[in-house]
């Protein structure tokens, strides 16, 4: 059992630098918490007020940590793909995978850091990364505050995973008959239509950020995500993060070229034996050819061939292709916690009034299996197709 726990908190990069020998040794779950990546995001994101990084110790022994930042930005509430309410607030953004908890005592310590930030007014709202339903972490953070400080109507969602087989052929063999047949048919059709004009480029290693971001951005401009102001964009922040990620082999990109022009991309992170699909897109002019799925097969093929990888994480959402190509899943839930202030509670009440009917409508669509059809219709409308 650890002794009394003390917590060291860093609110500047200089203070975090002093914790770096310990910080670098913690078993972070994602690259966002690694020092170089964490610092790059702080330095390139205009809305960041300060980091909020913490390490819990028992004596001189580190138990775990919290990687977070405080940002002044809109807290968006959406209906479908439309933002309908977005007050500017100070958001305590716990980074995806930011809690490295070696021992249970660390959980209580980092929970206290989040609670203090809300109680003292350092942040108006805290957003936590997806936590597995039934986990100690979800239970601990769900118990913070009272009814008016929790955002209700945030439904659990399914994270789809692929436990990687040793070879791509084994992956194909494990698919359902119809799915396997469609993959092979699409590949033959693309070969017939384009032949050697169609090539796949795997972008990894230092010095290739320009190649990756500019190529992906050319594709992303034509996607429905760009219409919404989301998805990948060629920005100083993206280039900085890609530069750091490629230098440390935390980022891997895949570009599908027709002749010399990219027509589809996938941007992935690689950390701790897991490849995470961050974002992807394809030129809608080639949607009937299913070029996005064709490139995804090359991503999976590359992941199967990498002995350092054991899992492909399809990320948030439950699109049809994720159900088709995954072989594992777990239920997760996001948490949004509000400070115990009048303004924060008023924002929570307003968001709840919007999200309640949306949640009921989504449940009805899921029950009638119309969710994918409605989502596809929205995307086609936004993409002008």
Low-confidence stretches: none
Identify the overall geometry: globular
Order of helices and strands: EHHEEEEEHEHEHHEHHHEEEHEHEHH
Distance between the termini: 61 Å
Number of discrete domains: 2
- Tell me the β content: 25-35%
Rg: 22 Å
CATH topology grouping of the largest domain: Aminopeptidase
Q: Note the main sheet.
A: 12 strands, mixed
Strand arrangement within the widest β-sheet reads 1-2-3-6-7-14-8-13-12-11-10-9
Helix % is 40-55%
Total number of beta strands: 14
Please count the helical segments.
Answer: 13
CATH class descriptor of the largest domain: Alpha Beta
Structural class: alpha+beta
Mind sketching the topology for me?
Blueprint: E1 5-10, H1 13-23, H2 35-44, E2 48-58, E3 61-74, E4 77-79, E5 82-85, E6 88-101, H3 104-119, E7 125-132, H4 136-142, E8 157-163, H5 168-174, H6 177-194, E9 198-203, H7 209-220, H8 224-227, H9 236-247, E10 251-258, E11 261-271, E12 274-282, H10 291-305, E13 311-313, H11 320-325, E14 328-338, H12 342-367, H13 371-383
Parallel strand pairs: 6-7, 12-13
Antiparallel strand pairs: 1-2, 2-3, 3-6, 4-5, 7-14, 8-13, 8-14, 9-10, 10-11, 11-12
Helix pairs in contact: 2-9, 6-10, 7-9
How would you describe this protein?
There is one protein chain. By secondary structure, the chain is of the alpha+beta class. It folds into 2 domains: 5-156 and 332-382, Aminopeptidase; 165-309, 3-Layer(aba) Sandwich (Aminopeptidase), CATH 3.40.630.30. The chain contains 13 helices and 14 strands. It has helices spanning 13-23, 35-44, 104-119, 136-142, 168-174, 177-194, 209-220, 224-227, 236-247, 291-305, 320-325, 342-367, 371-383, and strands at 5-10, 48-58, 61-74, 77-79, 82-85, 88-101, 125-132, 157-163, 198-203, 251-258, 261-271, 274-282, 311-313, 328-338. A 12-stranded mixed beta sheet has the order 1-2-3-6-7-14-8-13-12-11-10-9, sandwiched between helices. It has a two-stranded antiparallel sheet with strand order 4-5. A hairpin with a 2-residue loop joins strand 11 (261-271) and strand 12 (274-282). The protein starts with a strand and ends with a helix. The model has no long low-confidence stretch (mean pLDDT 90).
């Amino acid at each position: 059992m650890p002794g009394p726990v003390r917590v060291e908190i860093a609110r500047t990069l200089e203070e975090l630098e002093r914790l770096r020998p310990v910080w670098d040794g913690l078993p972070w779950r994602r690259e966002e918490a690694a020092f170089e990546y964490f610092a790059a995001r702080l330095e390139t994101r205009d809305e960041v007020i300060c980091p909020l990084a913490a390490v819990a110790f028992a004596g001189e022994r580190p138990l775990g940590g919290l990687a977070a930042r405080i940002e002044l930005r809109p807290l968006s509430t959406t209906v479908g793909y439309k933002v309908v309410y977005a007050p500017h607030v100070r958001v305590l953004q716990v980074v995806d995978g930011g809690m490295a908890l070696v021992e249970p005592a660390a959980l209580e310590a980092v929970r206290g850091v989040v609670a203090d930030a809300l109680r003292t007014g350092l942040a108006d709202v805290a957003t936590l990364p997806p936590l597995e339903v039934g986990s100690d972490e979800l239970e601990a953070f769900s118990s913070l505050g009272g009814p008016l400080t929790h955002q209700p109507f945030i439904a659990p969602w399914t994270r789809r995973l692929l436990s990687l087989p040793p070879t791509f052929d084994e992956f194909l063999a494990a698919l359902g008959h119809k799915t396997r047949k469609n993959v092979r048919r699409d590949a033959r059709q693309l070969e017939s239509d384009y032949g050697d004009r169609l090539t796949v480029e795997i972008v990894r290693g230092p010095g290739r950020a320009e190649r990756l971001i500019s190529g992906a951005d050319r594709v992303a401009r034509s996607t429905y995500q760009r219409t919404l102001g989301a998805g990948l964009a060629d920005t100083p922040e993206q280039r900085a993060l890609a530069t750091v990620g490629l230098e440390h082999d935390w980022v891997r990109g895949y570009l599908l070229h027709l002749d010399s022009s990219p027509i589809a991309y996938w941007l992935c992170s690689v950390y701790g034996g897991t490849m995470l699909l961050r974002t992807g897109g394809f030129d809608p002019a080639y949607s009937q050819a299913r070029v996005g799925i064709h490139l995804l097969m090359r991503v999976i093929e590359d992941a199967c061939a990498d002995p350092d990888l054991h899992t492909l994480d399809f990320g948030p959402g439950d699109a049809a292709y994720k159900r088709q190509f995954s072989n594992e899943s777990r239920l997760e839930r996001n948490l949004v916690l509000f400070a115990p202030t009048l303004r924060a509670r008023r924002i929570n009440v307003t968001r709840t009034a919007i999200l309640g009917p949306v949640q009921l409508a989504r449940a009805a669509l899921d029950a009638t299996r119309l969710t994918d059809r409605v989502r596809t219709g929205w995307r086609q409308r936004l993409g002008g197709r």
